[in-house]
Amino acid sequence: MSTPNPAQPRRLENLHTDKGKVPVYATGVVDQDWAGYTAEDHATWATLFERQRKLLVGRASAEFLRAQDAMGMTPDRIPRYTDLNAVLEPATGWRLIGVEGLLPELDFFEHLANRRFPVTWWIRRPDQIDYIEEPDLFHDLFGHVPLLMNPVFADYMAAYGRGGVKAHAIGADALQNLTRLYWYTVEFGLIREAGELRIYGSGIVSSSGESVHSLESPAPNRIGFDLERIMRTRYRIDTYQKTYFVIDSFEQLMAATEPDFTPIYARLAEQDSIPAGTVLDTDHAYQRGTGEGWSTEGDV
Ligand code: PHE
Ligand code: CO
Questions:
Q1: ∠ CA 59-223-188 to the nearest 5 degrees?
Q2: Mutate which of 157, 160, 170, 228 to test ligand 1's pocket (most atoms within 8 Å of Cβ)?
Q3: pTM for this structure?
Q4: What is the torsion angle, in degrees rounded to the nearest 10, for the CA atoms of residue 242, residue 48, residue 88 and residue 257?
Q5: Segment 16-32 mean pLDDT
Q6: Which of 90, 128, 154, 288 could form a disulfide with 132 if both were Cys (CB 3.0 to 4.6 A apart)?
């Protein structure tokens, strides 16, 4: 069942976790009240869309840009989820559902496992154009949804959801290992295309600053994908990443995550976590960051 959305998202609570204060919203699926968007909302979408597309040509994965075009997202107005679903469902079986915002982990995993992608229905205010600390419609729709058109990535996201349900049952440490994988692939991943680094992570493609920083700044490390290494690596939620991990292809990501993680979680429980900015001797480092501008505290 779905209910019409109220004028404001319904925040249920702020959880105090090891990640700091995390907002958790009502868990129900809501209709996207498209007629309720204001001219200002549509203008915010247009501004963000046009700015990002300009930055991303030549920076984002060609696959991301192609997928975004194929979905028919345009700058002129906020897309209707029903219109996008008419294209997405026949392509990969995924469907967008409206939500108030961040969901509790298990609800989120169950949606993914069933090929439902939760999209926050509200868009940020004009004064939040450059930075917002929680996902809104622009991050979810512009950042996450296009790659669901890619069959391999679409399968990866559903497999991740099933893995999340499993990790949730195993315990908090397993969940933390799996969350780091999501962070360093789905949210902040880089990919090598024709010998050059390109962006595919949603957290990067929806941020103008990080779209440039992730590829062009000398500050961060850029390290070849390594599953267990990533699952040990802490991260930043309030600054640009200190380290980006680079995949060679979505097939590589899919193949690396195919095995049962249960023995991996057991093995990782015996090992220390790695600070966000550390480079190990065993890393394949495309770039060792200068660390310029890094704050010394605050990895989660
Ligand atoms: N193979 C993982 C497991 O057994 C599930 C998974 C798939 C996790 C894809 C992440 C990505 O738990
Ligand atoms: Co996201």
A1: 50
A2: 160
A3: 0.93
A4: 0
A5: 71
A6: 128
Q: Is 16 a catalytic residue?
A: no
Spell out the alpha helix ranges (H) of the chain: 39-56, 62-71, 81-92, 105-113, 137, 151-170, 172-182, 202-205, 208-216, 227-231, 250-257, 262-268
Tokens coding 283: 């890393």
Lookup: tokens for 57: 């040509």
The pair of structure tokens assigned to 144 is 């996450």
pLDDT tens across 231-256, in order? 999 998 888 999 999 999 999 999 99
> Can you spell out the DSSP letters for 173-189?
HHHHHHHHHHIIIIIT-
Please give the pLDDT value at position 13. 60
Rounded to the nearest angstrom, the distance between the alpha carbon of 274 and the centre of ligand 1 is: 21
For residue 149, pLDDT over 90 is answered with yes
Q: Which residues contact 49 (CB under 8 A, 6 or more apart)?
A: 73, 74, 75, 138, 142
Looking at the DSSP assignment, which residues form a beta bridge with residue 243? 221
Identify the residue whose tokens are 């959880």. Answer: 15
d(CA 264, CA 151): 26
